[in-house]
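Page 47, continued from p. 46.
Same chain as before, 71 aa.
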Amino acid sequence: MPREDRTPKLAREHMARHTPVLAPGLGLGLWFDYQDHRLDEAAASMGWLGVTDLRTGLSFADSFRPDALDR
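Result:
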């Protein structure tokens, strides 16, 4: 997943050797803050790693963010 400065983390190449194809039980745990600018890059990295399933979650607190109910 990308760093704040958008460069790949060093572990990315290591993780590629243990993709879900090679290790079906492997999972990634990621948390993104509201409007995190790295989300698209992280999704691309997950595809590169061979991730095929994704579980998402929303916090009830997100409904209190500005413009949350306008979308």
